[in-house]
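Now read the record:
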Amino acid sequence: MTNYRIALIPGDGIGRDVTAAAWSVLQKAADKAGFMLDGKEFPWSCAFYKETGAMMPADGIETLRGFDAILLGAVGWPAEVPDSVSLHGLLLPIRKSFVQYANIRPHRLLPGVQGPLRSAGFDILCIRENTEGEYSGAGGRVHQGTADEVAVETSIFTRTGVERILRFAFEQARARRGKLASVTKSNAQKFSMVFWDEITRKLADEYADVEVTSYHIDAMAARMVMAPESLDVVVASNLFGDILTDLGAAIQGGLGFAASANINPDRSAPSMFEPVHGSAPDIAHLGIANPIAAIWSGAMMLDHLGERAAAGAIIKAIEWTTACGIGTIQGKDRTEAITASILAQL
C-alpha cells in the first residue's frame, strides 16, 4: 500500500480548524481508495514566533524536504506579529526554497453557490509566478525616521523564471480549452513587462494549438468581472497574479471557496497546498470558518501525488454538499457541519 508523508502546518486562527477538517476528509478518501497518508503536524505560527523569535526553526526547510507534500492552513495574526514578519518568515521561504514557482488557483462557481456576477458559467485557472517578480524581497530603506527616508523595492524578472512559468501556463492551456491570457502592464512598465510580453510571443510559436492573448492588468480585472466566461487559463506575475486571484475568489463566491497549490513542477522538492484565505482572527473562535477551500486544496494535493480518483471523489463530495445548500453562504453553517456533509458523501 502506497504511503505518503504529509507535513501539516495548521498555522494561525481558522487555519487550525480548516486544516483539521481537510485532513479528516483526506484520510477518508485515502482509506476508500486504498492508500495511506502519514501526517506530521508542525506548530509553526505567529504563536511559535512569540515563543521562539522565529516563524519556524533554523532547520525547518530541511525538515520539510523529506515529505511528499505540505498542507498549510493559514498564517498571520497582525495584532501580535506584523504580516511582513509572518509572511517572510514562513510562507515565502518555503515557496522559494522548494522552487514552488507555479501557484495554481482554480476559480469557478460550485453548484448552489450564488456569485456576485450575472455570469455563472466560468471556469478560470489562474497561474501565478510564485518565487520572484515583485515579491523577490530585493530592496531596502535608508535614513529611516528622517524626512530624507527612502524605500526601494526592486522587482526581479529572470529569463529562466518568466519562461518556465509561461511554459507551464501554455501546457495547462493545452490540457484544458486551448486559450491562454498573459497579463502584464507593459505600456507603463517598459522593462520587466515588455520583457514578459516578448517571451510570451516567442513561446507562442511553439504552442500553435494554443490561442494566446495579452492583456494589461487593468483590462484583465475588468474582463474577469464583465466576461469571465471568455477566460480559460490566465498567467501573471507574482503581484498581478496575487491580486487577480483575490478577484477570482470574489467572483466564485468568496475566499471560503478559493483553493491553491504551490507547485514544484519537476518534483525535486515537495509542493505545498493551502486555502487562499487568511487566518481570519475575527471569526477564529466561532467555529464558522468554511473548510471547503482547504478541502479543495487537499484534493489538489492528492491529484498532484497521482491519486486522481480520490481527488475527484473529494471534488464530487464538495459539489454534492454545496448543491444541497450546505456551506454556500459564508458564516451560515458551522465548520463541523460542512465537513460532516462532505465526509458523508465520501
In short: Residues 12 and 47 are 8 Å apart (CA to CA). The chain has a mean pLDDT of 97. DSSP finds eleven helices and twelve strands in the chain.
